[in-house]
């Protein structure tokens, strides 16, 4: 190589500058910087897809199948891709992160005594055939399915129920430990291999809830006594997991972030549930939305990591192999209102109602949430099974409406404007802090931000802050917020919510509430109704007036403001498997990380499509 | 010991008078390189302690309780209907070294780290020790980012030197402008283009993962070949962008050197241009690049989160992000400690090795 440029005799600054910043270079460099800026601007995580509808209907296109990096035949394998996994060698759900979540344990291997199908309201008996209480609800008897057995071939018996209940009752340091089992269960008797009787020290008509898979996994997972009884439950890894479900763990592949499950040939309920996929693989996929969407488009996975925006784009393009199924989350999105007197005006029920009048549910449901959703009136989801808890008469009496004028009237009563035009409460200016764990692109943030705008319009200064999970949790638990745009909390019946909202669980601001009554709500009427409801079957006639009384107290004070039902669509690829739940045939909860997914698997049929070699 | 003159010719008269003839100080005065190395190592230890301490307190200042947060997250994701009593929270606060005041936490952490090499249990893989969690990911990160970074550095130095050497030529101008354009484009954006072209449009390279799922990890050609094949796209995205950065900085260092007298002298001696470039010009300007590379090692150990996540690569970046999300202090600190250790050690080694790279550098004079 020869440098033909004249060699300078000394370091000529002008020459250096000329070479470094000649006009041509400057222009070229400027153009280059502009190009890089453009490229960088294009590189946001939002991706290159557009969710705008096509002007004309797109022609149906074919699926270009990609090669999935899986160790099993694609046509025999159902592939789920969504969650980032970190745990690969432990299946102990009693300790923090002792098992990978949404990796197949809950939805393939674990089973529950009962399943509540929230999509239909059906309660299905599975590992148990029935439950019953004695007359005063101090004795709960489970009859177990005599056919049930563990994946190692040992029978599933009442000994397993007794072991699990006693373990969780006595070990409050385990996740799921303590709680109702400690509070209520006196003894567990096993008169025979298929009968377990839980005797309680006081009426406990809701004790069976913990054994029902309603939302995700049940609170109490029955464990095999013959394996766990000799182990320290805080250290045991339970690897491979011995459970009762239709699939067993074939192998976890840590470096590929993948779990391969295979059908258990000796599954005890094969007569009733015999899923077609020989293998189910749960794997992490790219967190980059474009990359994940491309994988879905190439049918490299069947269900999982594609977001609503990209799914809409695929639909607009005429992608022929996608089913979209809507399902409401069990938790409506709500606003938690800090009711502690230390937060000033926030302790006033009229302030709660003023805020309620500033919530434009229709607008939020139509435009803020990624999919169109209905308003929420009660702090529970609008499932058919929950209709019995609704009270339309009370809802009409305490009607939720968007009315800034009514909000102003209430504010003028409790916090009139002072000389400076600012609203004052007991001599102090009002300034509210709204928080949310959602990021600034999230729906909860948008809800809070809309409210902030409405508050400002009526003369109430407010700030809206998106906080990371740990910071948000710290503030929520310690009551260091005014309004939290968050989610409601799941309940089988309203009393489960009310019992957490009673005055005795309201901790002073600054003290950790440990997930109970984080809004520091105190209401003697609700306390009284809750205390009377506690020993009653919530569906009994005796409970009805109490439920009404409690709901009325709730409506009067509004410690939690329901905003919208939460719609989450699921997207299924039909290239390799059909039979998914659809909007027209929502036979089962369509969420692949819930235990109910085994029943979806049971309905799937192979299309016969082969994967590429 | 004989009374020979000290080997260093630069010792002045005053120091000669006061130099003890026996003992450690005398030995050190006779071995200035060793004296420098010991002094430098002492400074290294102080820096290490200071950086680890700052890192500890920095992360502990993050508000929030990891155990509460984890339970909240589990409940929010409906993973477990996790009911968590105060006993659960207290137990795990103790397990993770989060009980007591922050100074007792610090003393416990440092004594475990220094005396036992123990970072404590990780929260994201409880009860696996944090060092084991890090070690699971580290080889992948070093393999991908380490090799890519070295490749980018070497290519950047070579191309940058040539671009500077041939400044004003069309090729040099194109390379320079291309580098200006692309040096600041995010890795993952290039990666996305590579994925689209090579994985989805042409279908010649895999779009994600670390190796073929039909293979078992082992030291054999099939597996190594698969790792290389799967690492090609993520590696390429890092090499391409990294190289452009090094090209720019090397060229920038190279151009002023070209006006120096010794290059004219070298040319006048009749040396070949390639020899002048490599032995005279480049050698006088690549020292800052060596130091910069040492410092950039720290970023390698933090992983390249976006590229790892795009390719679903099992590296340290993703582990770090997961740990931060769950406030897993032990794992976060472990990764940070490794980065601190790597950078400080690299700088120490560079300090000691610089005299070998550049004869003008003699610390012990």
Structure notes:
The complex is a heterodimer of chains A (613) and B (365). Chain A is an alpha+beta fold and 613 residues long. In chain A, the strands form 7 sheets. Chain A has a 5-stranded mixed β-sheet, with no helix packed on it. The two termini of chain A are 48 Å apart. The model of chain A is unreliable at 1-59 (pLDDT under 50). With 365 residues, chain B is mainly alpha-helical. Chain B has helices at residues 13-18, 23-30, 32-60, 66-76, 86-95, 102-116, 130-165, 170-182, 187-201, 221-257, 261-268, 273-281, 287-302, 305-311, 316-325, 329-357. In chain B, helix 11 (261-268) packs antiparallel against helix 12, helix 13 (287-302) packs antiparallel against helix 16 (329-357) and helix 15 runs antiparallel to helix 16. Chains A and B meet through helix 1, helix 2, helix 7 and helix 14 of A and helix 4, helix 5, helix 7, helix 8 and helix 9 of B.
Summary of the model, kept short:
Chain A is of the alpha+beta class.
Mean pLDDT of chain B: 82
Strand content of chain B: under 5%
Outline of chain B:
flat
How many DSSP H or I helices of chain B?
16
Helical coverage of chain B, percent range:
over 70%
Stretches of chain A where pLDDT is under 50 for at least 5 consecutive residues are: 1-59
């Amino acid at each position: 190589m020869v440098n033909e440029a004249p060699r300078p005799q000394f370091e000529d600054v002008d020459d250096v500058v000329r070479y470094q910043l000649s006009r041509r270079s400057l222009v070229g460099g400027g153009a280059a910087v502009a190009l890089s800026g453009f490229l960088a601007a294009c590189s946001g995580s939002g991706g290159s897809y557009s969710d705008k509808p096509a002007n004309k209907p797109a022609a149906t296109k074919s699926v270009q199948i990609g090669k999935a990096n899986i160790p099993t035949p694609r046509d025999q394998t159902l592939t789920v891709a969504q969650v980032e996994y970190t745990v690969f060698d432990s299946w102990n759900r009693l300790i923090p992160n002792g098992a990978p979540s949404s990796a197949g344990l809950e939805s393939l291997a674990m089973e529950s005594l009962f399943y509540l199908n929230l999509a239909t309201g059906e309660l299905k008996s599975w590992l148990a055939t029935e439950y019953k209480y004695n007359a005063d609800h101090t004795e709960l008897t489970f009859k177990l399915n005599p056919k049930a057995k563990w994946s190692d071939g040992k029978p599933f018996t009442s000994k397993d129920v007794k072991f699990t209940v006693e373990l969780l009752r006595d070990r409050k340091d385990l996740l799921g430990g303590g709680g109702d089992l400690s509070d209520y269960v006196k003894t567990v008797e096993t008169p025979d291999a298929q009968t377990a009787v839980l005797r309680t020290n006081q009426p406990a008509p809701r004790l069976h809830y913990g054994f029902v898979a309603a939302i995700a996994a049940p609170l109490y997972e029955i464990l095999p006594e013959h394996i766990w009884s000799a182990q320290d439950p805080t250290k045991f890894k339970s690897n491979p997991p011995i459970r009762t479900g239709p699939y067993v763990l074939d192998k976890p592949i840590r470096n590929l972030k993948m779990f391969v499950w295979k059908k258990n040939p000796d599954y005890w309920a094969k007569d009733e549930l015999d899923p077609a996929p020989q293998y189910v693989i749960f794997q992490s996929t790219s967190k980059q939305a474009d990359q994940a969407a491309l994988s879905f488009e190439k049918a490299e996975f069947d269900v999982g990591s594609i977001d609503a925006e990209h799914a809409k784009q695929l639909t607009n393009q005429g992608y022929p192999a996608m089913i979209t199924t809507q399902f409401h989350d069990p938790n409506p999105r709500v606003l938690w209102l800090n009711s502690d007197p230390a937060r000033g005006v926030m302790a006033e029920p009229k302030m709660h109602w003023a805020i309620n009048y500033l919530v434009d549910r229709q607008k939020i449901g139509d435009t803020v949430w990624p999919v169109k959703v209905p308003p929420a009136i009660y702090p529970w989801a609008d499932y058919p099974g929950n209709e019995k808890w609704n009270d339309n008469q009370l809802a009409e009496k305490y009607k939720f409406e968007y009315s800034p004028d009514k909000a102003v009237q209430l504010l003028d009563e409790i916090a009139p404007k002072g000389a400076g035009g600012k609203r004052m409460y007991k001599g102090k200016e009002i300034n509210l802090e709204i928080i949310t764990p959602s990021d600034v692109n999230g729906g909860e943030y948008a809800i809070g931000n809309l409210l902030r705008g409405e508050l400002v319009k009526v003369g109430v200064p407010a700030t809206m802050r998106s906080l990371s999970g740990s910071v948000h949790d710290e503030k929520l638990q310690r009551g260091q917020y005014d309004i939290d745009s968050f989610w409601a909390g799941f309940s089988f019946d309203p009393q489960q919510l009310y019992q957490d909202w009673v005055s005795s669980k309201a901790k002073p601001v600054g003290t950790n509430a440990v997930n109970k009554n984080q809004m520091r709500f105190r209401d003697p009427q609700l306390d009284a109704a809750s205390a009377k409801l506690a020993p009653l079957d919530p569906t009994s006639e005796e409970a009805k007036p109490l439920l009404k009384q409690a709901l009325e107290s709730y409506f009067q004070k509004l410690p939690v403001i329901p905003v919208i039902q939460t719609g989450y669509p699921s997207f299924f690829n039909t290239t390799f498997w059909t039979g998914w739940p659809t909007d027209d045939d929502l036979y089962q909860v369509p969420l692949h990380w819930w235990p109910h997914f085994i029943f979806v698997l049971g309905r799937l049929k192979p299309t016969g499509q082969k994967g590429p070699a | 010991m004989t009374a020979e003159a000290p080997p260093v010719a630069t010792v002045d008269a005053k120091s000669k008078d006061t130099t003890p003839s026996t003992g450690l100080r005398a030995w050190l005065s006779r071995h200035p390189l060793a004296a420098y190395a010991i002094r430098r190592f002492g400074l290294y230890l102080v820096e290490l302690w200071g950086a680890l301490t700052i890192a500890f307190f920095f992360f502990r200042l993050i508000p929030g309780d990891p155990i509460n947060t984890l339970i909240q997250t589990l409940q929010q994701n409906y993973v477990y209907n996790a009911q968590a009593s105060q006993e659960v929270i207290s137990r795990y606060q103790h397990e993770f070294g989060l009980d007591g005041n922050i100074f007792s936490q610090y003393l416990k952490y440092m004594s475990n780290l220094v005396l036992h090499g123990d970072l404590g249990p990780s929260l994201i893989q409880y009860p696996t020790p944090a060092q084991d969690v890090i070690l699971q990911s580290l080889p992948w990160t070093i393999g991908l980012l380490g090799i890519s970074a070295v490749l980018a550095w070497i290519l950047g130095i070579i191309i940058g030197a040539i671009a500077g050497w041939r400044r004003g030529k069309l090729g040099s101008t194109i390379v320079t402008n291309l580098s200006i354009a692309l040096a600041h484009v995010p890795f993952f954006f290039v990666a996305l283009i590579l994925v689209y072209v090579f994985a989805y449009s042409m279908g010649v390279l895999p779009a994600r993962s670390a190796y073929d799922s039909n293979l078992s990890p082992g030291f054999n050609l099939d597996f190594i070949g698969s790792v290389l094949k799967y690492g090609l796209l993520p590696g390429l995205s890092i090499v391409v962008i990294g190289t452009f950065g090094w090209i720019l900085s090397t060229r920038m260092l190279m151009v002023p050197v070209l006006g120096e007298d010794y290059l004219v002298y070298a040319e006048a001696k009749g040396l070949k241009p390639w020899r002048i470039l490599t032995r005279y010009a480049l050698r006088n300007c690549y020292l800052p690049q060596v130091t910069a590379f040492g410092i950039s090692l720290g970023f390698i150990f933090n992983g390249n989160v976006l590229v790892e996540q795009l390719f679903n690569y099992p590296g340290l970046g993703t582990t770090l992000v997961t740990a931060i999300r769950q406030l897993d202090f032990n794992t976060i600190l472990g990764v940070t400690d490794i980065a601190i250790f790597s950078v400080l050690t690299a700088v120490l080694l560079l300090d000691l090795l610089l005299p070998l790279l550049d004869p003008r550098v003699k610390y012990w004079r």
